[in-house]
Amino acid sequence: WLALPVVLLFTYLWCRRHAFPPALQWLVVAAFALNPYVLFFVSNLVSEIFFMVFLLGAILAAERGQSKGWQGPLLGGVIAGFAYLARTAGMSLLPAAIAYYFWKKQPRQALWFALGMLPAMAGWMLWARLHAAPGRDVVTVAYTNYLQVFFVNVGWDNLGVILWHNVSALLESLGSLVFPQLLHGILAKLILQPLGVAAILGCVRMARAGYAGMYTFFAAAYVALLLIWPFQPNQRYILPIAPVVMAGFCFEMMHLARLFRGAFGHRDRSQRVVAYGFAAVLAVILAAGLGLQGYMGLSILPEMARNDRADARTYANLYRWIRDHLPADAAIVWENDTALYLNSGRRATNFVVPPRDYYASEEDAGTTGRYGSIHEFARQHGLGYFALAKIGLQRNADVLRAVASNPNLEHIYEDSGAILYRVR
Known about the structure:
Blueprint lengths: L3 H14 L4 H12 L2 H6 L6 H15 L8 H16 L6 H11 L3 H24 L7 H7 L1 H8 L5 H18 L9 H23 L5 H15 L6 H4 L3 H23 L4 H57 L5 E3 L3 H8 L2 E3 L5 H6 L6 H6 L1 H7 L4 E5 L7 H8 L4 E6 L3 E6 L1
Parallel strand pairs: 1-2, 1-3
Antiparallel strand pairs: 3-5, 4-5
Helix pairs in contact: 1-2, 1-4, 2-14, 4-5, 5-7, 6-7, 6-12, 10-11, 10-12, 11-14, 14-15
Protein backbone atom coordinates (compact mmCIF):
# COMPACT_ATOMS: atom_id res chain seq x y z
CA TRP A 1 0.00 0.00 0.00
CA LEU A 2 2.87 2.39 0.75
CA ALA A 3 3.80 2.32 -2.95
CA LEU A 4 0.36 3.54 -4.04
CA PRO A 5 0.81 7.28 -3.24
CA VAL A 6 4.08 7.26 -5.19
CA VAL A 7 2.42 5.56 -8.16
CA LEU A 8 -0.41 8.12 -8.10
CA LEU A 9 2.09 10.98 -8.03
CA PHE A 10 4.06 9.49 -10.94
CA THR A 11 0.85 8.86 -12.89
CA TYR A 12 -0.12 12.51 -12.46
CA LEU A 13 3.36 13.66 -13.54
CA TRP A 14 3.18 11.39 -16.58
CA CYS A 15 -0.22 12.82 -17.57
CA ARG A 16 1.04 16.37 -17.08
CA ARG A 17 4.24 15.76 -19.03
CA HIS A 18 2.20 14.69 -22.04
CA ALA A 19 -0.04 17.76 -21.75
CA PHE A 20 -3.30 15.95 -21.12
CA PRO A 21 -6.16 18.38 -20.49
CA PRO A 22 -6.18 19.16 -16.72
CA ALA A 23 -9.57 17.50 -16.20
CA LEU A 24 -8.32 14.35 -17.93
CA GLN A 25 -5.18 14.29 -15.79
CA TRP A 26 -7.21 14.13 -12.60
CA LEU A 27 -9.74 11.73 -14.13
CA VAL A 28 -7.01 9.20 -14.99
CA VAL A 29 -5.41 9.49 -11.54
CA ALA A 30 -8.76 9.19 -9.74
CA ALA A 31 -9.91 6.29 -11.92
CA PHE A 32 -6.74 4.39 -11.05
CA ALA A 33 -6.71 5.32 -7.36
CA LEU A 34 -10.34 4.31 -6.77
CA ASN A 35 -10.49 1.28 -9.05
CA PRO A 36 -11.61 -1.72 -6.95
CA TYR A 37 -8.99 -4.02 -8.46
CA VAL A 38 -6.24 -1.56 -7.53
CA LEU A 39 -7.66 -1.36 -4.00
CA PHE A 40 -7.69 -5.15 -3.81
CA PHE A 41 -4.12 -5.64 -4.97
CA VAL A 42 -2.64 -2.90 -2.77
CA SER A 43 -4.25 -4.75 0.16
CA ASN A 44 -2.41 -7.97 -0.69
CA LEU A 45 1.22 -9.08 -0.84
CA VAL A 46 1.76 -8.87 -4.59
CA SER A 47 4.54 -7.04 -6.41
CA GLU A 48 2.74 -5.11 -9.15
CA ILE A 49 2.23 -1.78 -7.39
CA PHE A 50 5.79 -1.84 -6.03
CA PHE A 51 6.98 -2.62 -9.56
CA MET A 52 5.01 0.34 -10.93
CA VAL A 53 7.03 2.77 -8.80
CA PHE A 54 10.15 1.84 -10.78
CA LEU A 55 8.29 1.41 -14.07
CA LEU A 56 6.84 4.93 -14.03
CA GLY A 57 10.02 6.34 -12.51
CA ALA A 58 12.05 4.86 -15.38
CA ILE A 59 9.64 6.25 -17.98
CA LEU A 60 9.64 9.73 -16.44
CA ALA A 61 13.44 9.77 -16.27
CA ALA A 62 13.92 8.38 -19.77
CA GLU A 63 11.55 10.89 -21.34
CA ARG A 64 13.33 13.94 -19.95
CA GLY A 65 13.29 16.74 -22.48
CA GLN A 66 16.91 16.92 -23.65
CA SER A 67 17.02 15.64 -27.22
CA LYS A 68 20.78 14.96 -27.09
CA GLY A 69 21.44 14.41 -23.39
CA TRP A 70 22.55 11.05 -22.04
CA GLN A 71 21.73 11.56 -18.36
CA GLY A 72 17.98 10.98 -18.67
CA PRO A 73 18.21 7.76 -20.71
CA LEU A 74 21.00 6.39 -18.49
CA LEU A 75 19.07 7.18 -15.30
CA GLY A 76 15.93 5.72 -16.85
CA GLY A 77 17.82 2.53 -17.67
CA VAL A 78 19.18 2.22 -14.14
CA ILE A 79 15.69 2.63 -12.66
CA ALA A 80 14.37 0.17 -15.24
CA GLY A 81 16.94 -2.29 -13.90
CA PHE A 82 15.36 -1.96 -10.48
CA ALA A 83 11.95 -2.51 -12.11
CA TYR A 84 13.26 -5.75 -13.60
CA LEU A 85 14.57 -6.84 -10.19
CA ALA A 86 11.15 -6.08 -8.68
CA ARG A 87 9.32 -8.06 -11.34
CA THR A 88 10.82 -10.13 -14.15
CA ALA A 89 8.25 -8.81 -16.62
CA GLY A 90 10.11 -5.52 -16.36
CA MET A 91 12.33 -6.93 -19.12
CA SER A 92 9.70 -5.51 -21.50
CA LEU A 93 11.08 -2.05 -20.72
CA LEU A 94 14.26 -2.75 -22.69
CA PRO A 95 12.69 -3.42 -26.13
CA ALA A 96 10.07 -0.75 -25.42
CA ALA A 97 12.73 1.88 -24.73
CA ILE A 98 14.81 0.89 -27.75
CA ALA A 99 11.74 1.08 -30.02
CA TYR A 100 10.73 4.42 -28.49
CA TYR A 101 14.13 6.04 -28.99
CA PHE A 102 14.45 4.77 -32.55
CA TRP A 103 10.95 6.09 -33.25
CA LYS A 104 12.19 9.44 -31.90
CA LYS A 105 15.31 9.06 -34.10
CA GLN A 106 17.55 9.01 -31.02
CA PRO A 107 19.60 5.79 -31.30
CA ARG A 108 22.28 7.01 -28.90
CA GLN A 109 19.70 7.46 -26.18
CA ALA A 110 18.62 3.83 -26.76
CA LEU A 111 22.21 2.76 -26.16
CA TRP A 112 22.47 4.77 -22.93
CA PHE A 113 19.21 3.28 -21.66
CA ALA A 114 20.40 -0.24 -22.44
CA LEU A 115 23.72 0.41 -20.69
CA GLY A 116 21.82 1.52 -17.60
CA MET A 117 19.44 -1.45 -17.52
CA LEU A 118 21.58 -4.40 -18.65
CA PRO A 119 23.80 -4.70 -15.54
CA ALA A 120 20.80 -5.46 -13.33
CA MET A 121 19.39 -7.93 -15.86
CA ALA A 122 22.70 -9.68 -16.44
CA GLY A 123 23.55 -9.73 -12.74
CA TRP A 124 20.28 -11.32 -11.72
CA MET A 125 20.33 -13.84 -14.58
CA LEU A 126 23.85 -14.88 -13.62
CA TRP A 127 22.99 -15.20 -9.93
CA ALA A 128 19.82 -17.14 -10.73
CA ARG A 129 21.75 -19.45 -13.02
CA LEU A 130 24.41 -20.16 -10.39
CA HIS A 131 21.78 -20.79 -7.69
CA ALA A 132 19.17 -22.59 -9.78
CA ALA A 133 17.29 -25.45 -8.12
CA PRO A 134 18.54 -28.72 -9.64
CA GLY A 135 15.12 -30.37 -10.07
CA ARG A 136 13.23 -30.43 -13.37
CA ASP A 137 9.92 -31.74 -12.04
CA VAL A 138 6.81 -29.60 -12.53
CA VAL A 139 6.76 -28.36 -8.92
CA THR A 140 10.39 -27.18 -8.87
CA VAL A 141 10.06 -25.60 -12.32
CA ALA A 142 6.77 -23.87 -11.45
CA TYR A 143 8.17 -22.35 -8.27
CA THR A 144 11.66 -21.39 -9.45
CA ASN A 145 12.09 -21.09 -13.23
CA TYR A 146 9.78 -18.85 -15.28
CA LEU A 147 11.73 -19.41 -18.50
CA GLN A 148 11.49 -23.18 -18.17
CA VAL A 149 7.75 -22.87 -17.43
CA PHE A 150 7.37 -21.10 -20.77
CA PHE A 151 9.35 -23.65 -22.80
CA VAL A 152 7.63 -26.61 -21.15
CA ASN A 153 4.12 -25.29 -21.69
CA VAL A 154 4.27 -23.34 -24.96
CA GLY A 155 5.03 -24.91 -28.33
CA TRP A 156 3.92 -24.69 -31.93
CA ASP A 157 1.36 -27.41 -31.22
CA ASN A 158 -0.57 -25.33 -28.64
CA LEU A 159 0.43 -21.71 -29.35
CA GLY A 160 -2.87 -21.10 -31.16
CA VAL A 161 -4.86 -22.35 -28.16
CA ILE A 162 -2.89 -20.15 -25.77
CA LEU A 163 -3.31 -17.07 -27.99
CA TRP A 164 -7.04 -17.71 -28.35
CA HIS A 165 -7.55 -17.92 -24.59
CA ASN A 166 -5.18 -15.07 -23.78
CA VAL A 167 -6.68 -12.60 -26.27
CA SER A 168 -10.13 -13.24 -24.85
CA ALA A 169 -8.93 -12.98 -21.24
CA LEU A 170 -6.90 -9.84 -22.00
CA LEU A 171 -9.87 -8.01 -23.54
CA GLU A 172 -12.09 -8.98 -20.61
CA SER A 173 -9.50 -7.87 -18.07
CA LEU A 174 -9.00 -4.52 -19.82
CA GLY A 175 -12.75 -4.01 -20.00
CA SER A 176 -13.14 -4.87 -16.33
CA LEU A 177 -11.17 -1.76 -15.40
CA VAL A 178 -14.32 0.11 -16.52
CA PHE A 179 -17.02 -2.50 -15.84
CA PRO A 180 -15.98 -4.89 -13.01
CA GLN A 181 -16.01 -8.56 -13.95
CA LEU A 182 -18.95 -9.53 -11.77
CA LEU A 183 -20.80 -11.09 -14.69
CA HIS A 184 -19.85 -14.35 -16.37
CA GLY A 185 -20.53 -16.17 -19.60
CA ILE A 186 -21.57 -14.65 -22.90
CA LEU A 187 -23.04 -11.50 -21.30
CA ALA A 188 -19.67 -10.66 -19.72
CA LYS A 189 -17.91 -11.11 -23.05
CA LEU A 190 -20.45 -8.95 -24.87
CA ILE A 191 -19.85 -6.10 -22.42
CA LEU A 192 -16.22 -6.44 -21.37
CA GLN A 193 -14.53 -7.33 -24.63
CA PRO A 194 -15.85 -4.31 -26.59
CA LEU A 195 -14.76 -2.08 -23.70
CA GLY A 196 -11.32 -3.67 -23.88
CA VAL A 197 -11.18 -3.09 -27.64
CA ALA A 198 -12.21 0.56 -27.06
CA ALA A 199 -9.34 1.00 -24.58
CA ILE A 200 -6.83 -0.43 -27.08
CA LEU A 201 -8.14 1.77 -29.90
CA GLY A 202 -7.92 4.75 -27.57
CA CYS A 203 -4.28 3.96 -26.76
CA VAL A 204 -3.50 3.80 -30.48
CA ARG A 205 -5.37 7.06 -31.06
CA MET A 206 -3.55 8.64 -28.13
CA ALA A 207 -0.15 7.53 -29.46
CA ARG A 208 -0.90 8.79 -32.97
CA ALA A 209 -1.84 12.16 -31.51
CA GLY A 210 1.60 12.41 -29.89
CA TYR A 211 0.63 11.51 -26.32
CA ALA A 212 1.88 8.81 -23.94
CA GLY A 213 5.38 8.20 -25.37
CA MET A 214 7.40 5.37 -23.88
CA TYR A 215 4.55 4.12 -21.68
CA THR A 216 2.58 3.20 -24.80
CA PHE A 217 5.59 1.35 -26.20
CA PHE A 218 5.98 -0.51 -22.89
CA ALA A 219 2.28 -1.41 -22.89
CA ALA A 220 2.62 -2.88 -26.40
CA ALA A 221 5.71 -4.93 -25.48
CA TYR A 222 4.15 -6.04 -22.19
CA VAL A 223 0.88 -7.11 -23.85
CA ALA A 224 2.85 -9.06 -26.46
CA LEU A 225 4.52 -10.94 -23.60
CA LEU A 226 1.17 -11.58 -21.89
CA LEU A 227 -0.37 -12.99 -25.06
CA ILE A 228 2.19 -15.78 -25.42
CA TRP A 229 2.56 -16.47 -21.69
CA PRO A 230 0.91 -19.77 -20.69
CA PHE A 231 -1.25 -18.15 -17.99
CA GLN A 232 -4.27 -16.06 -18.86
CA PRO A 233 -3.78 -12.30 -18.25
CA ASN A 234 -6.14 -11.40 -15.40
CA GLN A 235 -6.57 -8.06 -13.64
CA ARG A 236 -3.39 -8.55 -11.63
CA TYR A 237 -1.22 -9.03 -14.71
CA ILE A 238 -2.57 -5.94 -16.49
CA LEU A 239 -2.19 -3.69 -13.43
CA PRO A 240 1.18 -2.21 -14.56
CA ILE A 241 -0.45 -0.82 -17.72
CA ALA A 242 -3.74 0.24 -16.10
CA PRO A 243 -3.00 4.02 -16.12
CA VAL A 244 -2.22 4.13 -19.84
CA VAL A 245 -5.20 1.85 -20.57
CA MET A 246 -7.51 4.14 -18.60
CA ALA A 247 -6.10 7.17 -20.41
CA GLY A 248 -6.64 5.43 -23.74
CA PHE A 249 -10.21 4.59 -22.83
CA CYS A 250 -10.86 8.24 -21.95
CA PHE A 251 -9.45 9.33 -25.30
CA GLU A 252 -11.69 6.86 -27.11
CA MET A 253 -14.76 8.08 -25.22
CA MET A 254 -13.90 11.67 -26.15
CA HIS A 255 -13.59 10.58 -29.79
CA LEU A 256 -16.97 8.82 -29.64
CA ALA A 257 -18.51 11.90 -28.02
CA ARG A 258 -17.39 14.00 -30.98
CA LEU A 259 -18.84 11.46 -33.39
CA PHE A 260 -22.12 11.37 -31.48
CA ARG A 261 -22.39 15.16 -31.49
CA GLY A 262 -22.01 15.16 -35.24
CA ALA A 263 -24.53 12.36 -35.69
CA PHE A 264 -27.07 14.00 -33.39
CA GLY A 265 -27.27 16.92 -35.82
CA HIS A 266 -27.50 14.75 -38.95
CA ARG A 267 -30.26 15.66 -41.39
CA ASP A 268 -31.29 12.01 -41.78
CA ARG A 269 -33.69 11.05 -38.98
CA SER A 270 -32.67 7.37 -39.07
CA GLN A 271 -29.04 8.38 -38.53
CA ARG A 272 -30.03 10.42 -35.51
CA VAL A 273 -32.08 7.55 -34.06
CA VAL A 274 -29.18 5.11 -34.43
CA ALA A 275 -26.77 7.61 -32.84
CA TYR A 276 -29.07 8.23 -29.89
CA GLY A 277 -29.54 4.49 -29.45
CA PHE A 278 -25.81 3.74 -29.40
CA ALA A 279 -25.15 6.67 -27.10
CA ALA A 280 -27.88 5.52 -24.70
CA VAL A 281 -26.52 1.95 -24.56
CA LEU A 282 -22.99 3.22 -23.95
CA ALA A 283 -24.19 5.63 -21.25
CA VAL A 284 -26.06 2.82 -19.48
CA ILE A 285 -22.99 0.53 -19.58
CA LEU A 286 -20.69 3.25 -18.26
CA ALA A 287 -23.13 4.24 -15.51
CA ALA A 288 -23.62 0.60 -14.53
CA GLY A 289 -19.85 0.09 -14.51
CA LEU A 290 -19.37 3.08 -12.24
CA GLY A 291 -22.08 1.80 -9.91
CA LEU A 292 -20.55 -1.69 -9.83
CA GLN A 293 -17.14 -0.23 -9.06
CA GLY A 294 -18.61 1.54 -6.05
CA TYR A 295 -20.46 -1.61 -4.97
CA MET A 296 -17.33 -3.72 -5.35
CA GLY A 297 -15.14 -1.25 -3.45
CA LEU A 298 -17.59 -0.56 -0.64
CA SER A 299 -19.21 -3.97 -0.21
CA ILE A 300 -17.56 -6.89 -1.99
CA LEU A 301 -13.92 -6.17 -1.13
CA PRO A 302 -14.55 -5.59 2.61
CA GLU A 303 -16.64 -8.76 2.69
CA MET A 304 -13.85 -10.70 0.97
CA ALA A 305 -11.37 -9.38 3.54
CA ARG A 306 -13.62 -10.44 6.42
CA ASN A 307 -14.08 -13.88 4.88
CA ASP A 308 -10.33 -14.26 4.34
CA ARG A 309 -9.65 -13.46 7.98
CA ALA A 310 -12.34 -15.86 9.12
CA ASP A 311 -10.94 -18.60 6.86
CA ALA A 312 -7.44 -17.97 8.20
CA ARG A 313 -8.68 -18.37 11.77
CA THR A 314 -10.42 -21.62 10.81
CA TYR A 315 -7.38 -22.98 8.97
CA ALA A 316 -5.29 -22.30 12.09
CA ASN A 317 -6.84 -25.45 13.60
CA LEU A 318 -5.49 -27.50 10.71
CA TYR A 319 -2.03 -25.95 11.00
CA ARG A 320 -1.98 -26.56 14.76
CA TRP A 321 -2.94 -30.22 14.31
CA ILE A 322 -0.28 -30.71 11.64
CA ARG A 323 2.37 -29.12 13.86
CA ASP A 324 1.44 -31.34 16.80
CA HIS A 325 0.85 -34.67 15.04
CA LEU A 326 2.84 -34.91 11.80
CA PRO A 327 6.60 -35.62 11.64
CA ALA A 328 8.96 -32.71 11.08
CA ASP A 329 9.81 -33.90 7.55
CA ALA A 330 6.16 -34.17 6.45
CA ALA A 331 5.39 -32.67 3.02
CA ILE A 332 1.82 -31.69 2.21
CA VAL A 333 -0.23 -30.70 -0.84
CA TRP A 334 -2.28 -27.65 0.20
CA GLU A 335 -3.51 -24.55 -1.63
CA ASN A 336 -2.23 -22.13 1.06
CA ASP A 337 1.25 -23.57 1.03
CA THR A 338 3.09 -20.54 2.44
CA ALA A 339 0.63 -20.08 5.30
CA LEU A 340 0.91 -23.77 6.22
CA TYR A 341 4.70 -23.59 6.34
CA LEU A 342 4.77 -20.37 8.38
CA ASN A 343 2.23 -21.72 10.88
CA SER A 344 3.41 -25.33 11.21
CA GLY A 345 6.99 -25.52 9.98
CA ARG A 346 6.01 -28.31 7.58
CA ARG A 347 6.83 -28.12 3.88
CA ALA A 348 3.96 -27.69 1.47
CA THR A 349 3.24 -27.16 -2.20
CA ASN A 350 0.21 -26.26 -4.22
CA PHE A 351 -1.31 -28.78 -6.61
CA VAL A 352 0.64 -27.68 -9.68
CA VAL A 353 -1.22 -28.29 -12.94
CA PRO A 354 0.95 -27.16 -15.86
CA PRO A 355 -0.98 -25.01 -18.35
CA ARG A 356 -0.34 -27.57 -21.09
CA ASP A 357 -2.06 -30.24 -18.99
CA TYR A 358 -4.78 -27.82 -17.93
CA TYR A 359 -5.83 -27.09 -21.51
CA ALA A 360 -5.51 -30.76 -22.48
CA SER A 361 -7.80 -31.92 -19.64
CA GLU A 362 -10.91 -29.82 -20.35
CA GLU A 363 -9.75 -26.76 -18.36
CA ASP A 364 -12.10 -25.98 -15.45
CA ALA A 365 -14.43 -28.81 -16.49
CA GLY A 366 -11.64 -31.29 -15.81
CA THR A 367 -10.89 -30.11 -12.26
CA THR A 368 -12.72 -33.02 -10.62
CA GLY A 369 -10.85 -35.57 -12.71
CA ARG A 370 -7.48 -34.03 -11.93
CA TYR A 371 -8.17 -34.09 -8.20
CA GLY A 372 -9.37 -37.67 -8.53
CA SER A 373 -5.76 -38.64 -9.29
CA ILE A 374 -4.15 -36.32 -6.72
CA HIS A 375 -2.45 -39.33 -5.11
CA GLU A 376 -0.35 -39.81 -8.27
CA PHE A 377 0.86 -36.21 -8.11
CA ALA A 378 1.70 -36.61 -4.41
CA ARG A 379 3.62 -39.85 -4.87
CA GLN A 380 5.54 -38.50 -7.85
CA HIS A 381 6.81 -35.55 -5.81
CA GLY A 382 7.38 -37.24 -2.46
CA LEU A 383 4.37 -35.62 -0.76
CA GLY A 384 2.89 -37.79 1.93
CA TYR A 385 -0.24 -35.80 2.77
CA PHE A 386 -2.99 -33.88 1.04
CA ALA A 387 -5.29 -31.25 2.59
CA LEU A 388 -8.50 -30.08 0.93
CA ALA A 389 -10.49 -26.95 1.80
CA LYS A 390 -14.12 -27.16 2.87
CA ILE A 391 -14.62 -23.38 2.97
CA GLY A 392 -13.60 -20.32 0.96
CA LEU A 393 -13.40 -19.64 -2.75
CA GLN A 394 -11.57 -22.91 -3.43
CA ARG A 395 -14.34 -25.11 -2.04
CA ASN A 396 -15.65 -27.50 -4.69
CA ALA A 397 -18.34 -30.01 -3.75
CA ASP A 398 -17.57 -32.30 -6.70
CA VAL A 399 -13.89 -32.37 -5.78
CA LEU A 400 -14.72 -33.13 -2.14
CA ARG A 401 -16.79 -36.12 -3.21
CA ALA A 402 -14.20 -37.40 -5.69
CA VAL A 403 -11.40 -37.20 -3.12
CA ALA A 404 -13.51 -38.81 -0.38
CA SER A 405 -14.08 -41.86 -2.60
CA ASN A 406 -10.41 -42.25 -3.52
CA PRO A 407 -9.10 -45.51 -1.97
CA ASN A 408 -5.52 -44.24 -2.27
CA LEU A 409 -6.15 -41.56 0.37
CA GLU A 410 -6.60 -42.22 4.11
CA HIS A 411 -8.73 -39.74 6.05
CA ILE A 412 -6.76 -38.74 9.19
CA TYR A 413 -8.15 -35.36 10.28
CA GLU A 414 -11.12 -33.10 9.62
CA ASP A 415 -12.50 -29.87 11.04
CA SER A 416 -14.86 -27.17 9.82
CA GLY A 417 -12.23 -25.75 7.46
CA ALA A 418 -10.39 -28.62 5.82
CA ILE A 419 -9.84 -32.36 5.52
CA LEU A 420 -6.38 -33.92 5.78
CA TYR A 421 -5.54 -37.20 4.03
CA ARG A 422 -2.50 -39.46 4.18
CA VAL A 423 -1.40 -40.71 0.77
CA ARG A 424 -1.27 -44.51 0.85
